[in-house]
Amino acid sequence: MSSELLEGFVSSAKASISVILVLAYGYVLRKFEFVSQEGETNISRLGTKFFLPALLFSEIGPLATVHNLKTYWPIIPLSLCFQSVALVVALLSHMVGMPQHYVPMFIFNNVTSLPLLLIDALAATGGLDQFLTGDKTLDSVLKTGRVYILINALVGNLTRFALGPYLMKTHSKAWYQSYHDHPEDENFIPQIGDIALLEEDGVTEPPSLKDKIISSLQRTKDWIVSAINPPLMGGILALTFGLIPWFHKELFGSGFLSPISDSINNVGKLFSALQMLILGSHLYSKKGSKTQAFPLLWLFTYRFILAPTLSINVVYFIRTRWPNLMENDSMLDFILSISNTGPSALTMASIAMMADLPSEVEGEVSRILTFSYAVTPFISVPITVAMWAVRQTR
């Protein structure tokens, strides 16, 4: 157990240090003005609207097949289940005073780069040898593990960019201000949830039923329009082309459309490094207010202790209670057990920009992510527990 804990600690430490170093490069580049304020804004916007959709398209497309959805279906409901629990916890925490921008950071953890780095490091140190069964080689087990991670990332990415910007927005009295900005506009329709604010300001006449219906429809339309953002569109297009056999073969295989997917893949690879550089740049340029200690500690407690406790126990329960429900694969159990573990996704910085948060809040999001990756080596504990739990079911 101690050797496994050390292996997990070393692997996660390497992964987190590599992230912190790139953040440091971005901080230094901004400090010495190799990156200007305008350049920082342009690169951030370009990453969110172009590089990130390309990355999601190239990651999701090749895996979006009917066969994969049939074979790896348990990953989808379990991923959604873990996210739903995190959503409830985050909303309850927000009700007792946790800032709004923390909500999606509870729900959406790093489901791609960090777990991929971790299983590669574990393979290099012999930590994955215990998952070798029958005639399987280390390479085949590692390849299967990567597929499991990417299927889970497919679900995480789609939900993250569909709901993340909405969940991160600060729900304040912005409507109240807009009402006073339009005092003579007779067509201005108040939001239903803000009637109490009108009454406090001396406006006692409630909106009519027609106004309520129009307001509800308008809000629904606005939500749909805001939810269809570029990253989400990249994922939807990947699913669409991936699930159509002819397009999947010609676009993501070796067909005549493959140069298109290759070019999109090359563009998408630019996102991760640029995202981390700009995140580091934000640490210098967007100082903002100090990060509150208690919400940060609560976020870490959930992401590194409570969340993995949930996923490990759920997988253990399913495997012992209904052993034939899922494919009998130790690597599948392990990936599902750690899928809910780890720091918030680095793309939270892009979601903060999409949510059009104030500059000081964007700066705080950058600092939260930096702190999250600084403590990432502690992920070695749930990784070790997950390994132990998987062995107990064999």
From TrEMBL:
<feature type="transmembrane region" description="Helical">
    <location>
        <begin position="296"/>
        <end position="318"/>
    </location>
</feature>
<dbReference type="GO" id="GO:0005783">
    <property type="term" value="C:endoplasmic reticulum"/>
</dbReference>
<dbReference type="GO" id="GO:0055085">
    <property type="term" value="P:transmembrane transport"/>
</dbReference>
<keyword id="KW-0812">Transmembrane</keyword>
<feature type="transmembrane region" description="Helical">
    <location>
        <begin position="12"/>
        <end position="29"/>
    </location>
</feature>
<feature type="transmembrane region" description="Helical">
    <location>
        <begin position="75"/>
        <end position="94"/>
    </location>
</feature>
<feature type="transmembrane region" description="Helical">
    <location>
        <begin position="106"/>
        <end position="127"/>
    </location>
</feature>
<feature type="transmembrane region" description="Helical">
    <location>
        <begin position="50"/>
        <end position="69"/>
    </location>
</feature>
<dbReference type="InterPro" id="IPR004776">
    <property type="entry name" value="Mem_transp_PIN-like"/>
</dbReference>
<dbReference type="Pfam" id="PF03547">
    <property type="entry name" value="Mem_trans"/>
</dbReference>
<protein>
    <submittedName>
        <fullName>Auxin efflux carrier</fullName>
    </submittedName>
</protein>
<keyword id="KW-0472">Membrane</keyword>
<dbReference type="GO" id="GO:0016020">
    <property type="term" value="C:membrane"/>
</dbReference>
<feature type="transmembrane region" description="Helical">
    <location>
        <begin position="368"/>
        <end position="390"/>
    </location>
</feature>
<keyword id="KW-1133">Transmembrane helix</keyword>
<feature type="transmembrane region" description="Helical">
    <location>
        <begin position="223"/>
        <end position="247"/>
    </location>
</feature>
<feature type="transmembrane region" description="Helical">
    <location>
        <begin position="147"/>
        <end position="168"/>
    </location>
</feature>
